[in-house]
Amino acid sequence: MKVTEHIKKANGRTLFSFEILPPLKGQHIQSIFDTIDPLMEFKPPFIDVTYHREEYTYKELENGLLKKQVVKKRPGTVGICAAIQNKYQVDAIPHILCGGFTKEDTENFLIDLDFLGIENVMALRGDAVKSETYFKPEKEGHQYACELVSQIQDLNNGQYLDDELQNTSKTDFCIGVAGYPEKHMEAPSFDSDIHFLKKKIKKGASYIVTQMFFDNKKYFDFVDKCRSEGIIVPIIPGLKPIAIKKHLNLIPHRFKTDIPDDLIMAIVKCKDNAEVRQVGIEWCVEQSKELIKAGVPLVHYYSMGKSTNIKAIARQVF
C-alpha cells in the first residue's frame, strides 16, 4: 500500500513509523529483525530502509603508489526490504540516491523493486563521499533529487531510458522526498530551499519526510511556509532522540540542525549516557505529543540502528 493510502486510511489518526540502517557488511540480517521486533507492537504501516553508497579508500602498494579501492560498508537495501515485507507483512520503503547511481543503474534498481511488489521509494540526492568536499554525481547520473523524482515518474508513465522499447509496463511508485525545516545545509536561503522542494513535488513526489528537528516550532513554521507556497502533500515530521553526549556536537555538525538551549543544558548536567538517554526520551516524548495534538499524519523516528529508546517513546505516545 502506498504511504498516501496509509495516511488516508488512518482517517486522521497519527501513525507511527521508523527508519533502519542496513547492517554492516559481515553481519546477519537477524540484527535487523532484532531492531524491528520490539517496535512491531506499535503497528507501523511501513519501515524505511536507508541506502549507503560506496566509499573510497586508498591502499598503499609495495612500490609506494596508492591504489584506489571502492568499499561499500552497508549493502543490502533491496534484500532487506524484500525480507521485511515477507516476514512482517508491512511495506518497506527503500531509499534511492542520486549519488553512486547512473540513470541506467537507477532504472534497473527501480525495476527490481517493482518486481518485488515494493510500491514506495524515498528519493534523495545523498551526501558527498568522505573524500569530496561537495556532492559529485556519476558521469551519467543525476545532480539533484528533482531529476531523480522525474525519472521515477517517467517509469510510472511507462517511459524507459531506451525509447525503442515497445509495450512497456508502467510502474506505480509512491515517491517520498526530504524536507528541511531548518533548510538544507547547501541551500543559499530558506526560500530557495522551499522553491526546490516545490519543484520535487511538481515532478511527482507525493509526500515529504523532514530532517530531524528538536524544536517543534521550526516544523510548524516549515509546514506553514510550504502551504503558503502551494505544497499540499503530507509533511511527515522526523524525530531523533538524543542518546549520548557526543550527539550535542555530532548532530549540529552532521545534519546542520539546531539543538535548543534547554535540551543542551539538560544533557550537559547528565552524569553519564544513561541519563542522557533518558533526557532524550523525555524530550522526544513531549515533541511527539505536541505534534500528534496538532494532527500530524504520522511521526517518523530515526532509529540509527537502535530501537530501545524508540520503544520507550512509543509506549508513552502511541
Explained architecture:
- This protein has eleven helices and ten strands.
- It has helices spanning 3-10, 30-36, 77-88, 103-115, 145-156, 190-203, 216-228, 247-255, 261-268, 273-293, 308-317; strands spanning 15-20, 46-49, 55-60, 66-71, 91-97, 120-124, 174-179, 207-212, 235-239, 298-302.
- Strand 5 (91-97), helix 4 (103-115) and strand 6 (120-124) form a beta-alpha-beta unit.
- Helix 4 packs across helix 5 and helix 10 packs parallel to helix 11 (308-317).
- 36% of the residues are buried.
Mean pLDDT: 92
Number of strands: 10
Strand content: 15-25%
The helix count comes to 11
- Architecture, according to CATH? Alpha-Beta Barrel
The span between the termini is 22 Å
What class would the helix/strand composition place it in?
Answer: alpha/beta
Task: Provide a concise account of the structure shown.
The chain is α/β, with parallel strands linked by helices. Helix content is 40%, strand content 18%.
